[in-house]
Design a protein that fits this description.
The structure holds three protein chains of three kinds. Chain A contains eleven helices and 15 strands. By secondary structure, chain A is an alpha/beta fold. The termini of chain A are far apart. By secondary structure, chain B is α/β, with parallel strands linked by helices. In chain B, 38% of the residues lie in helices and 14% in strands. Chain B has helices at residues 32-44, 56-60, 81-94, 107-112, 115-124, 169-174, 189-200, 215-218, 225-234, 252-259, 264-269, 279-301, and strands at 48-52, 73-75, 100-106, 128-134, 180-185, 205-211, 241-244, 247-250. Chain B has an eight-stranded mixed sheet with strand order 2-1-3-4-6-5-7-8, with helices on both faces. In chain B, helix 1 (32-44) packs across helix 7 (189-200) and helix 3 packs parallel to helix 5 (115-124). Chain B is globular. Chain C has helices at residues 14-27, 113-119, 133-140, 146-156, 161-172, and strands at residues 2-9, 31-37, 46-54, 69-72, 92-96, 108-111, 123-124, 127-128. In chain C, strands 2-3-1-4-5-6 form a six-stranded mixed sheet, covered by helices on one side. The longest helix of chain C is centred in the N-terminal third of the chain and has 14 residues, at 14-27. The chains are: A alpha/beta, B alpha/beta, C alpha/beta. Chains in contact: A-B, A-C, B-C. Chain A binds chain C through residues 3-4, 113, 115, 166, 168-170, 172-176, 265-266, 268-269, 271-272, 343-346, and chain C through 18-19, 22-23, 26, 31-38, 40, 58-63, 65, 155. The structure holds thiamine diphosphate (TPP), iron/sulfur cluster (SF4) and magnesium ion. Iron/sulfur cluster is lined by residues 27-28, 31, 33, 56, 60, 135, 139, 214-217 of chain B.
Chain lengths: 370, 304, 175
């Protein structure tokens, strides 16, 4: 059905379609609408999930872990400090190979308190073993959430997955949304290691140095297999519902001399900048990085690359710039912009391209950087 | 026992004129918790640090680079107020300073996410004052349920009314046997002022639980904020008392109210959050109020 | 692309007005987005909402700095916020006011949305509802069509008085 919705509402609607058995979540700006909408669906009887109104995010993820291993589909949503507060259990969920799906509404970290978009929260979970996708439109928030259940629950993956959407910029914007009849797109939840009293096992007992690393390798093997599964699921989604996605969304890249790499809403805004630059005769293109874990292979050879990082790894550099440098060997022009919701327009992005100095880093709005 | 109370303060005009919370707060119109903060700081005076976890007060205090506060305010993560205050209190004591450390936290930051740190601090005997201002929901994020939301109240996460009762925070605190604990209500600022004064005169972990009606959350017109607090006390829904070294004494306004409580409906009627309450829930609420009154009256008499 | 900036105070319905407007434009067959900009303040503080309407899909997420139309739901905001900031040379202004205001001339229109809401008894918690009547005024200005405006209102609200209020604003606004 074609209608309009916010990014948060789109996530809640996808969850409604996926019908998790248990949802446990804790409110935090700018994610609250997801939780509130789900509570409303459950109260009205439109969604037959158990909603567990936990007392913290640590408990939200712990409750999802308990439910998931008991044998039902689970969902949670959080943001920023909420994600950080659940960090221990975020690691746990992946280590326990539980296909929990979580929406993370990207927001900056305190102090000072800031509720606006930034990607540091998600990137700080980089090494947990979660799959991570970043979306750029309301429709994509819906589609990616639906696909997340299918990807995560695939027996070749069995890893939790995080769907990231920019706080306010996407969580609160109203755009068109086409909701779908999912039919049998999502198979029934099946966890091979679900708790079964007929087959008693110990879950996560003491595991010594001779064995532990094998379990770690197993996570990585699934992460590698996930690339194929993601492609499969995205292809099936396109066939069924007519919307296709890939590891990146490329815009006017074919003949481009310079490519802007950005994530989330800035990746969309960049497309407008590209049109302006093309009008000026600058052969620019943009590549919106959708997948962060597993990190995709990117074809950027022979071009100038401008990376916009809405994050920073202190003492090192922009997280995406670093990933691109190490994956492609290209020295990008690294722009740190949009931290804590800092306003970045398509005009600014066009300026980044015009003024690019590959191999250097710039903090947008900071005049005394080196 | 360092129980020195300024008995001279018997009316509002005797409260110091100095302001530590200026009028330029970012609170909603009719916000009672910001009023409470004003009296808390008047009682505490300038040699005071506030430790504030994520809550409405994170916003009420003003937005960078401005501030509405004239004492240092240390903002800290949602779950961390009592633990952070513990460290601060130890540090001041190590430096030989007598600065008041006051954690000023919402009900969510106290009964839900913050309860572990709170319990730890009280068990350790931390020398500080922990104040929970209770607007009975997560105000900062737009009124979701908290463990302190009362039975039947509609919040954005309990659109059909909360199916479970309010967590009895005071009995949890009492189980830690603190030297001083009290309840207060925004509609009785003089009572609050005196309780803060007394609390700060005592060494060790002190606790004050303030009922702070909230117009957008409870859905009543802003000008009714004082009336709402008074009705909470008059109906016996909220009982004002203090417990010093285990000995409970009921405070003036509640003494009268507990003898002849006003009908619960008087309190509930004016609040949108209790709209369409079903009779069974209302009955249960009445029962809870009665049981609470009886329990506290018995404890004061020493028959518990 | 047609860009609209709505000024209101938190709780006055500016955010919903933006959503309604986007929905109406969407029902007209256009592409539309609505985005509120929330500050850190509580209820009652000035807020801005942005609406974009275009024939092509809209990819812009940043704020509107050069609006084609500025809507002011609460003219008391004009003492603290420069609502005309960045308004295009050929831009228009729509005020919720019973009278023209000094300093806002040219293509400045006004309509008494508060009066219309009160006449229809559209009041929640003591505040008149402005977000549905304003849609009628915008239909009169040709930003959206009246049928789409009415459809959008019916999709989001069940109370027919909202539609009546929008019609009243449509009638009252002089263009
Ligand atoms: C770890 C974490 N989770 C969630 C939040 C979001 N959050 C900020 S304040 C708040 C609610 C506070 O409620 P309460 O303690 O009752 O104070 P009030 O806002 O009502 O004053 C929430 C959920 C946060 N900042 N950090
Ligand atoms: S939501 Fe309630 S407690 Fe929070 S600032 Fe507003 S009135 Fe005060
Ligand atoms: Mg609260």
């Amino acid at each position: 059905m074609l209608t309009i919705a916010t990014g948060n509402k789109a996530v809640a609607d996808a969850v409604k379609a996926a019908k998790p058995g248990v949802i446990a979540a804790y409110p935090i700006t700018p994610q609250t609408e997801i939780v509130e909408q789900i509570a409303e669906y459950v109260t009205a009887g439109d969604l037959e999930s158990r909603y567990v109104p936990v007392e913290s995010e640590h408990s939200a993820m712990a409750a999802c872990i308990g439910a998931s291993v008991a044998g039902v589909r689970t969902f949670t949503a959080t943001s920023s400090h909420g994600l950080l507060y659940m960090h221990e259990m975020v690691h746990w969920a992946a280590g326990a190979r539980l296909p929990i799906v979580m929406a993370n509404v990207n927001r900056a970290l305190g102090p000072g308190w800031n509720t606006w978009a930034e990607h540091t929260d998600a990137f700080s979970q980089r090494d947990t073993g979660w799959l991570q996708v970043f979306v750029g439109t309301v429709q994509e928030a819906y589609d990616a959430t639906l696909m997340a259940f299918k990807i995560a629950e695939d027996e070749r993956v069995l890893l939790p997955m995080m769907v990231n959407l920019d706080g306010f910029a996407l969580s609160h914007i109203t755009q068109s949304l086409d909701t779908v009849e999912i039919g049998d797109f999502l198979p029934p939840y099946h966890l091979p290691h679900a708790i079964d009293t007929e087959n008693p096992c110990g879950y996560g007992p003491m595991t010594g140095p001779a064995d532990y690393f094998r379990f770690r390798w197993d996570i990585e093997r699934s992460m590698r297999d996930a690339r194929g599964v993601i492609a499969e699921v995205e292809r099936e989604f396109a066939e069924r519902f007519g919307r296709s996605y890939g590891p990146t969304e490329d815009y006017r890249c074919e003949d481009a001399d310079v490519i802007v790499v950005a994530m989330g809403t800035l990746g969309k805004e960049a497309e407008v900048a590209i049109d302006r630059l093309r009008d000026e005769g600058i052969k620019a293109g943009s590549m919106r990085l959708r997948w962060f874990r597993p990190f995709p292979d990117l074809d950027l050879a022979g071009r100038d690359v401008v990376v916009i990082d809405r994050d920073y790894s202190f003492g090192f550099g922009g997280v995406v710039a670093h990933a691109i440098r190490s994956k492609t060997g290209i020295e990008p022009y690294s722009v740190i912009a949009g931290l804590g919701g800092q306003e970045v327009t398509y005009n600014d992005i066009a300026d980044f391209v015009r003024n690019r100095r590959p191999g250097t880093e710039t903090w947008f709005g900071v005049s005394d950087h080196v | 026992m360092t129980n020195i109370v300024e008995r001279s303060v018997t009316n509002l005009s005797a409260i110091p004129k100095e302001e530590y919370l200026y009028k330029c707060t970012s609170a909603c119109a009719g916000c009672s918790s910001s009023l409470c903060l004003r009296y808390v700081l008047k009682a505490a005076g300038p040699d005071t640090v506030l430790v504030v976890p994520a809550c409405c007060t994170s916003v009420i205090q003003g937005i960078y680079p401005g501030t509405a506060m004239n004492v240092p305010v240390y903002n800290v993560a949602f779950a961390a107020a009592a633990a952070c205050a513990s460290g601060m209190s130890e540090a001041f004591s190590a430096m030989g300073r007598e600065t008041n450390v006051i954690a000023y936290a919402g009900d969510g930051g106290t009964v839900d996410i913050g309860i572990q740190a709170l319990s730890g601090a009280f068990e350790r005997g931390t020398n500080f004052l922990y104040i929970c201002y209770d607007n009975e929901a997560y105000g900062n994020t737009g009124m979701q349920r908290s463990g302190s939301t009362p039975l039947g109240a509609r919040t954005t996460t309990t659109p059909g009314g909360k199916p479970t009762a309010k967590k009895d925070l005071d009995r949890i605190i009492a189980a830690h046997n603190p030297p001083y604990m009290a309840t207060a209500c925004s509609a009785y600022p003089l009572d609050l002022y005196k309780k803060v004064k007394k609390a700060l005169s005592i060494e060790g972990p002190k606790f004050i639980h303030i009922l702070a009606p909230c117009p957008p959350g409870w859905r009543y017109p802003t000008e009714k904020t004082v009336e709402m607090g008074k009705l909470a006390v008059k109906t016996g829904t909220w009982i004002l008392y203090e417990r010093e070294f285990g000995k409970l004494s009921i405070s003036g306004p509640s003494r009268a109210a507990m003898k002849r409580p006003a009908p619960l409906e008087d309190y509930i009627r004016g609040q949108g959050r209790f709209k369409n309450l079903d009779p069974a829930t209302l009955d249960l609420m009445r029962q809870q109020v009665r049981q609470n009154i009886e329990r506290i009256a018995r404890e004061e008499e020493g028959v518990c | 692309m047609y860009e609209i900036r709505i000024h209101s105070r938190g709780g006055q319905g500016g955010v919903t007005a933006a959503k309604l407007l986007a929905l109406a434009a969407f029902r007209d067959g256009k592409h539309a987005t609505a985005c509120p900009f929330y500050g850190a303040e509580r209820r009652g503080a000035p807020v801005v909402s942005f609406v974009r309407i275009d024939d092509e899909p809209i990819k812009v997420y940043s704020q509107i700095h050069e609006p084609d139309l500025v809507i002011v739901l609460d003219t008391s905001i004009m003492d603290v916020v420069d609502v005309l900031d960045g308004l295009r040379a050929d831009g228009e202004v729509l005020l919720n006011s019973a009278h023209p205001l000094p300093g806002c001339n040219g293509t400045c229109r006004y309509v008494d949305l508060t009066g219309i809401a009160l006449a229809e008894n559209l009041v929640i918690a003591g505040s008149p509802i402005l977000n549905t009547p304003v849609l009628g005024a915008l239909a009169k200005m040709g930003v959206v069509t009246l049928p789409s405006a009415e459809q959008a209102i019916r999709e989001m609200f069940t109370d027919e008085r909202n539609v009546k209020a929008a019609r009243a604003a449509y009638e009252e606004l002089k263009v």
